[in-house]
Records
---
Amino acid sequence: MHRTDEGPKTSMTGRQAELRRLGAALEDGARGGPVRVLVTGEPGIGRTTLLRTFSAAARAQGRIAVDVPCPPHGHQPPFALARQLAAKLAALLPPEDPHRTALDASLSAAAGRTGPPGQAADTLLADARAALAALTPDGPVLLSLDDAHRADTASLDFLRRLLLTPPPARLVLIASARDGESRAGGPGELHELFAGARHIPLVGLAPSQSAALIRRVARRAPTADVVAECHRACAGNPYLLTEVARILRDRPAAAADATPAAALRPAPVAESIGTRLAGLDPNAGKVALAIAVAETHSAADPLLVSHLSGLTLAETLAAVDLLVCMHLVGDDHELFLRHRVVRNALLGRMTLMARNAAHLAAAAYLHGKQAPAERIADHLAASTVPLDEPWAAPVLLRAGQKALAAREPDRARRYLEHAVLAASGEDRRVAILELIDAKIGIDLAQGLHEAVRTLEEATDDALRLPLLARISTALYLGSEPGAAARTTLTAGRAGSGWQQVHRLLDGLHAYPLPSAAQLGDERLAPKGRGLGRRTAAEADFCGPDRVAAATSVVSALRGHLTCRPADAVRDAREALREERGLCLHPVLRLLALMVLTWNGRDEDVTAQLRLHHDCADCHEHPLHRALLLPVTARMALMRGRLRTAHEQLGECVDALVHYGTRPQHPLLLWIVGMLAEVRLATGQGAEARALLREHGGLGGRSPDWLHRDVWLTRARLRADGGDLPGVLADLAEVTGATTPLGPTGGVHAYVHTVDLLTQLGRHAEARDTARALLRTAEAMDTPRERGIALRVLGALGGAPDGEELLREAMRLLAGAHADFDLAHAAADLACLLFDEGRYEEATAELSTALELADRCGARPLAARVRQRLAASEGRSAGRSPLGGVLKLTKREKQILVDAVRGSTNERIATTLHITRRTVELHLSSAYRKLDITGRKDFPHLFRTAGLWPLLVDSAST
C-alpha cells in the first residue's frame, strides 16, 4: 500500500502522558471496532502539535495515518471536508485497486455537493466505507481531524454516518476542538459525533516543561527566576511561552537575567486573540479589553467591565460566558484573564492616552460606587496623567497607608508617588512621609538616600522633624549600631546635636551610664567643625532644646539603676515634656515610659500614651507606634493580663524583624527577653528557649543592664530543666557583674532572683535580695511594688511574721489589681498555712490562687496550685511522683532537696548536724517512695510540672 500523507515534521515539549493515552486508543482500534478520541483545550494549548506528533509517530510504526485539517469557516465550501477525506483515502490505495476507481468516480459525481446528503453523497459514503475496509485488513487506520469545531454541518454528518452507521472495524478517529469555540460557532453535529468518546483535556505545561520549551525556542538558558516569571505569566500555555521565548531569543545575552516588559506583552498574541474573538463574537473582544483594564491587583467587577466596554450587563455576561468557555477568563463571581501575557498584550495594543482615559474612567466609576480605596488607587496610579478631582489625592493616600499596614511596600510606593503629585498641604506632607516609609521598607540604603535628599529640600520643621525621625529609626534599627554613615548623612541639616544623641544612645546598654556633668559637657557638646554653616532658621533644628530629651532619658535611667526612684521618675517626666526632641531617636520615648512603668507610675504612662496620639511629628511612623507596645505589655503583665502582654510583645518583635532589624540588635534582644519571660509565665518554656536561641540570648556573653532580664530568663529555663549548676553559673554572672543588680526590669527582676536563689538553697542570699527589693519598693512608694516585695519576703519567712507579711501583700496587690502577683501571694500563704496544719484556710487560699492563675493564663502557676490541692485532698495515686512526695517526711524532703542541689552526703550531714548514716537512710527511704534508684534519676523530678517547686517550698518552711 502507498502511504503518501506524510505531513509536516513537528517537535513538542512534554505531553508524554497524553501521547501514551493516544497510543492506547490506537492499540484498542487495532483489536476491534472504531475508537473516537476528542482532544480539547484553550487556544494555544498545543492540540494541533499533539495530533501532528502522534500521526508522525504512528507512521513511523508503519500505521496508516490520514491528517485532515479544518480551515476556518468560510474558507472552503460546505461538504469540502468530506470530499477531502475521501480523496485522501483514495490516495492510500494502489491506482489499479477497484475500490480506488469507485471512490474516484464517486468524488467526481459529488463534486458539486453543497447541501444535505443526496444519492451522490450516499454513493461516496458507501465507497469510502469500502475503501476503509480495504485499508484495514491487518491494522487500524488513524484519522486525525484538527480543529473539528470549524467543520461544516454536511461534513460532520458524513463523518458521523461513516463511523457510526454501522461502525467500521479498526478505525481510530482523533479530533481536536478548541474550548468554547465549538459551542459558539461549530455545528451541533460535533457533539453528536463525539458523544461517549474518550476525552483528553489539555492543560498548561508543568514548570519544568515550560523551562525546557523556553530554552529550546530562546536558544539559551535563562535564569530560573526568568523562567518562573514566564511560566506564571503564561500559565504554562505553549503558544504564549513560545512567543515570549522568541522575544528573549532576540535580546542580548548579557540581559538574560531579567524578564523584559516587552517579552510579557508580545504583539502577535494580541493580534491572534483579537482576530479570533472578532470571528466568534463582536462583543467578546470589547469585554476582554475591558477586563484587561479593570483587572488590577484584584479581579474585575462585572459591572465595571460593562461600564468600560459600553455594553449592557446582559451583553457583557454573554461575552464573558464565551471567554470562560475558551479558558481565557476565570469562571468566578469576579473576572480576570487567566494569562497575564494575554492581559499585557491586549493593553499593549492600546495607545498610552487610551489606557489613561480608560483607567481614569474606571477610577471615577469606582469612586462613585464607594469602592475600597486601593481599587480606585490602582487605576489612578495606572494613569500617567493625574486626575484633577479633589478626592483623588486622599484616596491615593489612604490606599498607600493600607498597603504599608499590610506590609506591601512596593504597592504602597506606587500609590504614594502619585499621591505626592496630586496632593497639597497637609495631605502632601503625610504622603511624602509615607512614601519614605515605603522606600525604606523596599531598600534600606536607597530609602535612606531618598529621605536625606528630601530632608535637604524641606523648608519647615513640620516635615523635617518626622523625616529626621525616620532617618534615625532606619540608622539605629536597620543597620549596625554606630554605623559610620550616621556621622555624615545629615550633618549639613541636622547639626551636631543629632549625631551626639545617636553616639550616646548606641552604647546606652553599657555601664556606668554618663553622669549629669558628662551629659552636659562631653556627650552632647556641639563639635562645630565639618558641619557646614546653618541659617538662622536652621539654628535650633537640633539645638539644646531638642537634645534635652536625650539628656533627661539617660539621667532617668541612671537614677533608676542606682535605686533612686524619685530622681528617675522626675527625669523621665522631664524627658516626656520635650515632645519634639523625642523624635530624634526611636528609643527615647520608649525608655522614658519604661522608667515610669518600672517605678509603678501607670497613671503617668497612660496619660502620656494618650497625649502621644496628638504628636504631629512622629506618630505617623508605624514602627514608632510598635515601639510603644513593650510599655503597654509591661503594664498588662503587671496587671495579670499575660495573654495581652504576649500578643503585644509578639507584635513588636514581628514589626522590628519585618523592618529589617538584625536578630542580635540590643533593642530587639531586650524586647525578646521580655517576650520570653511572658512565655515562661504562660507555660511556653520550649518556645521561650527557641526564641532566645534565635536571637542569641543563650550565648555566653556577660549580661549588661539592658539584658539582665534575658539572663534571668535563661537561668529560669535552666532551673525548669533541672540544670541547677547552670542556674548557679548564670546567677553568679548576674549578681557578680559590674552593673548593680538594681530594678533593671522592674521589681520582677528581684522576684526571679530570689526564686532562683531559693531553689539553689542560698537562703541567706535570697533574704538579703528580698530585703533590698523591699527597700527599693518603699522608695518607689507605690502599693503594687510594695505588695510584691512583701510577698517575696513573706514567702521566705515562717509564721507569724510570714503570714502577716503575705496578708498585707495580698491587700496591697488586690487594691492595685495585680492579679498575677496576687495569685502567687495566695499560693505562698497557702503553703505556710499547710505547714501550720490550718488545712481549711490553706485550701481556700489555694482556690483563690487557682482562680486568679487561670484568669491570668499563668499555666505553670495553675499547675503548681493544682498539685497542692491534690496533695491537700490526698487524691494522688500512690506510685505517682506527687503521691511519693506526699509520703515524704519533713526531714526526708530537706535531705532530698539538698542532694538534688548537688550536696554530698557528708556535707548534708554537717549542715543538718546529723550522721552520714542517717542521711543515707533518709535518702534510701525517699528514693523508695519516689520510685527512683538514686541520684542518677534526679532529672525525673523535673519532668512532672510543679513537683520540684512543691519539694522546695515544703522543705524550706
Note: The radius of gyration is 41 Å.
---
Amino acid sequence: MGTGHRDKHLCYCLDYRSSLIAKAVETRKDRHTVWNWAAELWIVPHHIPGSVYEPLKSINLPRPDNETLWDKLDHYYRIVKSTLLLYQSPTTGLFPTKTCGGDQKAKIQDSLYCAAGAWALALAYRRIDDDKGRTHELEHSAIKCMRGILYCYMRQADKVQQFKQDPRPTTCLHSVFNVHTGDELLSYEEYGHLQINAVSLYLLYLVEMISSGLQIVYNTDEVSFIQNLVFCVERVYRVPDFGVWERGSKYNNGSTELHSSSVGLAKAALEAINGFNLFGNQGCSWSVIFVDLDAHNRNRQTLCSLLPRESRSHNTDAALLPCISYPAFALDDEVLFSQTLDKVVRKLKGKYGFKRFLRDGYRTSLEDPNRSYYRPAEIKLFDGIECEFPIFFLYMMIDGVFRGNPEQVQEYQNLLTPVLHQTTEGYPVVPKYYYVPADFVEYEKNNPGSQKRFPSNCGRDGKLFLWGQALYIIAKLLADELISPKDIDPVQRYVPLQNQRNVSMRFSNQGPLENDLVVHVALIAESQRLQVFLNTYGIQTQTPQQVEPIQIWPQQELVKAYLYLGINEKLGLSGRPDRPIGCLGTSKIYRILGKTVVCYPIIFDLSDFYMSQDVLLLIDDIKNALQFIKQYWKMHGRPLFLVLIREDNIRGSRFNPILDMLAALKKGIIGGVKVHVDRLQTLISGAVVEQLDFLRISDTEELPEFKSFEELEPPKHSKVKRQSSTPSAPELEQQLDVNISEWKDKPTYEILQKLNDCSCLASQAILLGILLKREGPNFITKEGTVSDHIERIYRRAGSKKLWSVVRRAASLLSKVVDSLAPSITNVLVQGKQVTLGAFGHEEEVISNPLSPRVIKNIIYYKCNTHDEREAVIQQELVIHIGWIISNNPELFSGMLKIRIGWIIPVSAVLAVKLYPEHFRLLVFVEVGLAVSDHLVPYLRPLLFSVEWATLSPRHSSH
C-alpha cells in the first residue's frame, strides 16, 4: 500500500472525534505528527487495514465486594470458552496457531500452553462442590489436547527410532501438525522442526497433569513410546536445535545451535519424569519411566556452563524465562538464576513487553516476509526496533507469585494493563507483539523509546495469540489467589531454598543445602592371590566369590539389560540405545531378574580406551569420579563406588601410587572426598536400589544371558610379583627393522613372511597396518584375522606400556574413547571452537556438539594424513582439555579457538624442557609424535604448564 493511499485510508477510519486529524492529512500535514495523533486514538494501521481489537479500558473496573467464588471463576470460564476452547479442534484436540483465515497449522508448544490454561481453571473449579460439570469439561479439554499431541507423535514412531540413534534435524519429530487430522505439515527444508524444547515441555506437563489426578496415558504401548521420548531428550546437551523461536542461530541463516532454554527444559523434564508412574495412582511397575542419571547430569552441567547466555550467538533471550522460572524451574543455583534473570530484564524489557532477543527482526517493518533466511549482517537493520512481546509480562507475574514477591506481581500487572485489548464481546486479549511502523523506524532508531508501537492484529499473525491467552488465564488465577503454586506445580518443580531439605521424591534436583556426602567404597581384588598380597600391606579386600550371592557386573552388562527398556515391536521401537552407563548410574544397586547386582565404573573396564591402562591416570580418574559423585549425587541413600584392583595395577613403579591411594581410602578421605570403606554386604543396606522391572520375562520367552565379573584363576603355586610397568632400556632401544615407505609396496607374501619372523611389536603393528589397508580386516595371518592379530598386539603392548605401539594399534582398530563427545561439548559450552586435524593440513572446525559417530569420522579422516597415531593422540588431548576447561575455565580466557592438532608439536618442545629426565633414551626421529608417545603420565600437568594465550602472536589470536 503506498504512503499516500495509506494516509487516505486513515481518513476513512476516523470518526467524528478525529476530524482534526483528517483535516491535517488533507492539508498534507507532517505525516509523523498524523500517525502519532492516530496512535493516541488507537487507530492502528497495519499490513491489513484496521485493528480487530479495542483498547481494554475496563480491565481494572472494581468488582462487587461480595463477589462469590463462583462469580470469580465464572468470569474466567467465559474468557476461556471464548478465547481458547472455541478454537480447539473437535477431532485431535489441538489448538491452531492462527485463529482466522482458515489456517490449519497447530504447533506443539502453543497447544501445550492452551491445555495448561484449561487445566489451571479446572484446578480452581475443584474448590467448588457443585461446579455444574465445568471441572470435568475443562480437565478433559486438557486431556484431549495432551492425547492429541501423543497421537501425532506416535504416528512418527519411526522418526523417534531414528533420532534416538542419530539425532539430526532430518530425523526429528515434527513440531507442526494439521490441527484437525494430526498429519505432519511442512518438510524439513521448509521449517525447522528440531525443537527439543517442545518435546521436553510435553513431558513436563504430562507429569504435572497426571500428578494432579488426570488420566492421560492408557496402555503400555504409550508407556514404551514415552520412554523412547525420554531417550531422545536425554542427549539434548549435545544436540543443537532451532530453539523456542524456530530460527536456530540469531543470524537466521538456517543453522542450529545449542540453546540454554532447550537444555534447561530437558533437564527439568528428566527430573520430573524419572521414576514417575504414567498410570498415576492406578499404576504398576510396568508403567514407570527410567532416566539415565548421568545423561541428566550432563544436561545440568551444560546448562550451568551456557548460562547466563542463551547460545553461542544469543547473548540473552526471553526464552530463558520459562526455562529458569515457570514452568520448568530448571535452576537450583540461586546466584545463577539472579544473574540470568537480571540480564534478561536489563537488556530486553520494554514499555510494551520484552524483546525476544537483541536484533530480532521477527515481524519488524524492515523484515522481508518473502524470505525465510536473512542475508549476512542483515540483523543490524533491526537494531533498536525489535518487536516487544507482552506475554513476558505474564511470565514475570507468575514468577512473582511463585517466589512470594507481590511487588513484582503488581509491577508487571501495571505494565500489562495498558497493552491489553478486548474483543467485541469485551473479553481481554493479549496482543502477540507490538511493532514500530515503517514510517517511525528512523525516529525510533535516532531516539530509542520515543515512538509509539502498534499491536499485531488480524492478518498473517491470526486474530488471537492463544499462547498469550492461556498464560493470561494462569497468571490471573494465581494473582487472584484462585489457585496456588502447589496446584499447578504438584511435583514441586519450584521449592524455596528454606524448604529444600524437606523434599522427598524418588529423584530431585533439590539436594540438601550443604552436600557433605560420604561415599561408600568397596575394594574388590581381581584374584585371591592379589587379595593375600594386599593383605600383607594392611589393605582388606574381597574377591568376586566372597561377595556372592551379590553379582559384580561390568557396566556393559548393565547396558545390555537396559536394551530391553522401552521395546515395542508394534511401533518399531528398540530399547535404550547402546550408551555407556556413567559413574552415577554405577553407584546404585540393581535388582535384575531376582538377582542383586552391583557394577564397577567404566574407568576399570579393560575394553575401554587404552588410557585406563596407565595407573597414574587411573588413580587420577578414581579421584575425579569420587569428587564428581560427591558433588552431583542428589538421591536419598549413599552412592556405592566399587574399586576394582587388577594384578597388572601393582606391577613395578606404579605399585607405590596405588598403595598410597588405597591407604587414603582406608583413612576415610581422598581428594577432599569423605569415603567409608567396608565389606560390600555391609554397605548395601544404605545404598539406593533400582528395580529393573521392565525385564519381565514370560514362561515362553528366553532368558537374557548376562556375564558377571569372574575371579581370575592364576596358575598353581604362582605368586604376585611387582614387575616393571615401564619398558626396559633394551625394549626402548629395540630398533625398528621395518619402514613404512619401504614395505608398503612389497608383495603380501613377503609381508606375511616378515611378520612371522619378526619379534618386535612395533614392527608387527606396522606390517599389520599395511595388510589391513591392502587386504582388509578379515585377511588371515598365522595368528588369525588381521583385526584379531592387531587386537592381541594392542593388549600385549598395553601390558608392557609401549605407548607408541598401543597408539598405532588403537588407531588401526579405529578405537574411540567413550567420553569424547561430552568432552568436546564441555569446550563448546564455554564459548570456544575446536579444530581437529593434523598440523599443517586441513582442519575441521567444530562449533556445535556432534555425535560420537560424526566425531569418529572426522578424526580418522582428518588426522591420519601424517601418522596413524595422531588420531588417538588427539582424542587424548580432547579428553584432557575437556576436563581442564570444566574445572579451570580461566586458563582458556582470551581464546576463541582451540587447535588440537597444533598442540602436539608445541607439546614436544615443552615436554623436553619440562621433563628432560623422561626422554634420555628417546631417539627423535619423528619429533612431535615420538615425544607424545611417552606423554601419557605427564600430559595433564603439561597442559597446565602451557601458557596458552602467550605462546606467540599467531597462537594467541586463536
Note: Residues 728 and 800 are 9 Å apart (CA to CA).
---
Amino acid sequence: MSQIKRNIITIDPNFDDYNTGPTIQEHRGVPLHIKNTPIFFRTQLEPLGIWSLWQDYGYRIDNNFAQTLTSETPYLVEEHYLPIAEVPGQEHILQSLKEWDLSRKRDPKITISDICFLGMEEMLALADGKTPNTDFDLFVRGICYNPEDYGKEELIHLDITHDAKPIGEIPIYLSLDIDSLIWNTHRLWLLGSLEIHMVPYMQRKPPIEVHNHTYVKILKPQTDIQQANNEYTTYEQFKTQSIPHIHFGYSGHINVWIAFPRMIHRQHDSPYWATQIPFHVQDRWFTFIVQPSIRKIYGRGSKEYVSHSSKEYMAKARGRTETRFVDHKKLLELQDEIHQHIQEDCNENLDIFGSFFFILEARGIKLWTKDREHLSDDIFDVMRQVMPTLDLEYMSHAESGECVLDLGISASPEASEPMVGLWNLTHVDASFAKAGTNTPRLFNIETLSDYGGLSAEFPNDRAAITHMRYRMAYDLVFEIVRGHLKFPENSDAYLANGSYHARIKQLIDHYKYAKTSSYRVRDELRASIKAVKSLVLIAKEKMEMFLDFGTVIWISSKTYFEFWIRRIEQLKYLQMQIAQQRPRNACNLSLLVMHLIKTVFTTPQPLDSHTHFILHDLNFHPSSQRFGIFFIPELHWETLAVDLMEDDNDAVLQFVTNQPGKRKERQKDPLEDSRHTSEYPLGTHPSWDEIIEILDSNPTLITHSHMSTPFWEDHQSEMDIMAIQLMAKWTRQYTFSMNEIFLKDEINYPVLNNWDDIMQFWSIQGIPKLVHVPSFNAHKAYWKGLPPGPQQLAFADCFHSFFPPLTVKFQEGSYWISYLTNGYIKDYHEILKSYTEQVVLNFQDSLKAAFDLLECLPDRAPDPRSQAWKYNDNKGGPCFTVNARTYKIRGIGPKKARNPETRPKAVATHMHIHSLLLADSQQITVPEAVKYIKGQQRNTKKQAKWSTRMKNYREPPPRQKKVLIIEQDATVPHRTPESNLSISEEVEETNDTEIEADDEYDMGNDNFNLELSNSDDSISD
C-alpha cells in the first residue's frame, strides 16, 4: 500500500461559505412537529411547515467533494477484473446432498436413494401431455414414478447440467460496450448545447430513485466552537441518491440533475433521507434564480421569449416540460449568474440553494457503443463520435469531479441451434469474493438454486485505490419480458377469470417466440474512466478465460423455454382447481402459485408479508437448494391441502380478494384528471352515472375500438381455429332467437366467415346496422371504484352463459332444446365429449380470450337457461352490454354532486324590506338606513357579549307591591294583620314602589323616535 500515490487536491478556503451557516447546536432539539394543547385527552401533532423543514442545515462542500477514488492511478485493476476462484466439484455437492435430512418430524425418513436426478429434457420426455396428473406431479410437485415399480414415488432433483452443452463445442462471440455514464461535478463543462428546465419537477418520485452506486463527501455542520475558531469539520460520505435534487437540463439521452447539499435532512418521522423537494421550494429556485439568470445571459433580441414569470412558464408548459436553449459557452455564464444571485440575495432566503453541484447521467447507451468497429476500434473514440456533447478528457480529471462508466461485456453463443446462457452462481460468487466485493445480492432465476445473477459494491477503501465501484453479472434472458411485463392481479388469480387467463396466455406466448433466439450472459463493471481505459485492452481476453472455467452453462433454447412453458401451464391448471374447489387455504395457495409464476420471469422484490410468511413456512430457500428448484411435494391433489400451510384468515382473504372494508374511504388516484380530452372524453375517472348516460346517448364517444384485434399470438393454433368457427356459428344462430321486428333485415340473417366479421358484428358500430333502436348498458365489472352492490361477470367468464356445460338441463318446451339438438350448443357439447380434459381446457381458454375482446354482448342473466334477450322500455329495443375494458377511462370516480340551479326568491330580503321602511318613515336615503341598521346590529352583538360573571349573576326576585290604605284623618298606612313591617319600612317600600312604577312607565314607552335634527349623529353612532 505504500506504493500507492494519492491524488491530493489542494483545498480552496474560498470555495464555499463555511463560517456563516447554522451550527449543530442550532438544529439540535428542534422537534419535527408541534404539540398542541391536549383537548379531551388527545394531543394533536402538527407537522412543521415546508420552510421549517427545507432550510439550511449547515452542510457544505469542498472543491474535492466528488473525489472518492483517491489514488492517482487505478491499482491492481487486472487482478480485480473477472478473477477466477476455485470451488468444490460436483462430487462434493453430491456428498453434501447425502448428508441432508430431507424428512420432517413424524414422517418417514427420505434417503438419497429416494431422489431422482433429472434434467429439463428428461422431464419433458417423461411428460406425455395427455394425462394432466402426470405433468402436474412432474412440474409442480416434483415427483416421478419408478418405471420398474410404478407405485413407488421418487422426488426429483432438477439438475440442468444434464442439458448443458460442452463449452468447447460452442463458439462464443464477445461484445464490448459502455452502458452508462455518471459524472458528479461542481462546474458543468460540455462541448454542446443544453436545454435548461424552466418549471418545477412534477413527478411523484425524485429523478434518481434508486442508488446509482456513486458517492460524494459532504462537510458536516460546524459546532459553535468550530465556527468561532474558524475550524474545519469532518467529512461524511453520502450516496448521491440521498441528497435533495431536481432536474436542471438535458441534451438528447443525457440528463443533468442539480443537487442541494445544504438541505440534507431526514423525512418526517422516518429514517430515510428526504430527496423529493416540494413544489414551493422548487418554485423559489426557478422564480428567483434560474429564470432571472436566463434573462441575464440572453441577448436583447430574445427578451420577449424569456421575460416571463413563473406562472407564465407553467401556463406555457401545460403539464409538460418547458425549456430554454443554452449553448456551451453561455452555460458557463449561466452558472456564474446562479452563484451571483445566491450570494447577493438578502430577502428571499436563497442561501438554501448554495453549495449545489451537478449530476450528469447517460443511461442505456450500450447500443450507441456496441459493434461500432466501422467507426473506430477504440471504444472511447466511438463515444466521442456518437456523444459529441461530452468532453471525456476534461471529465477524467479529478479537479473536474468524478466520472464513472459501466464497462459491459456480453458473451453470445454462435451455435447451430439457439442457446440460452446462465451464470453459475457458485463460480461467479467465488469470483466476486476474490475481487474483494461486499456480500453479493443473489437473483436466482426461475427459483433455480445455483443459477441466475448477482451484484455487489466494492468496499469504499478498496474502491478508492482500484477505482472500481460496482459489479453486476446477469442473464440476458430477462430481456424477453423487460419493460412490458404484466402479471395477473391476485384477485384475478383467486377467481381464475378471463383477465387471469389472458395475462397467463401472454406470458406463455413470450416464451413460445423465444425458442428461436439465443440469449447471452453479461457482466458489467462501474469504474472510473482511467480504470476502464486500462481494462478495455484486456477485457475480452479475461472474459474468455472466465468462461472457460465453467462459469456459464449453455442450454438449448427449445428445451429451456419448453420446460418453463410446461411448468406455467401446470401452475395455471392448479390455480383453476383452486378456483373451482375453494379449499380452506385457497388464498394462501393462490399467493404461492402467483409467486412461482412470477419467479419464472423475474425475481419479485419486495414480497408482501403474506407471501413472505408462506415461503418461510414451506422452507422455500432450503427446499430450492435441496431439489435444484422449488417443488411442492407436500401438496395433496385431492384436497389441495399443503403440509405446514395454514388456513386462510381474514387478513389474507382481504388482501387477495381486494374487497374494500365497510368504512374504507376512497383514495384519490394520483393520475386522476378531470379534463376532457380525446383520449379521455369524460376525464380519467368519471362517475358511474356519467358512464351510464353517455352509453345511452353516444356510446362511441367513450369506447375504444378493438376491430381486427386477434386473441391469439403470431399464428392460430388448432384450438383457435375451432373457437372461431364455433363463435361464427353461435353469432349467426343466436340472432335467430331475436324477435324479427327488431331486425332491419328480417329475411337475410348475417353470415360470418372469419374473426373480423365476428368483431364487427358485436361492435357498437355494427349492432345499429342490424338492429332497430338497440339499448347499450354499462358493464359493472373490471374497474376499481364501482358503486356498491353485486358486480357482473367479465366478458371472458360470460361464455358459460352462451356455451352451457354438459351438466345443464333445459326445461321441456324451451327454445334452448332446439339449439341443443340442431344448433351450436350441440357442436360445443360434441367437442367437450370428444377431447381430453387438457385439450378442452385449452379450447375453453381460446373461447375466453375471444369473448374478452368482444365489444358488446346480449344483456342477459348468467344462467344459461335464462331468456336470450332483454327489452328496454325506454328505447323500445333489445339490450346490449358494452365491455367495460373498452371504456376510455382509468377508473370510476365518486358520484358528482348535482348543484341545482339558483333561482331568485319571490320575497325580498329582510334587510331590504327593513331599510326601505326605515327610509320611508324617517325621510332618509336607503344607504343611510342600511348603515344605521348594521350599526344597530353591531351594538346588539356587543351587548350580547357579556362577561361570564354578568351572565351568571342571579337577579333578585321582584319585590311585592303593597297597597296603601289611607284613612281620612290618618297619616300612616293601615297595618294589616299579615304585615310585620314597621312604619318606616312601609314608607320606604312605598317610595321604592313609586320609583319602580316611574321606571316601568319610562321603559314601556319603547316606541322608535328619531329626531331629524339628530339623524346624522344617530346614524354615525
Note: The mean pLDDT is 82.
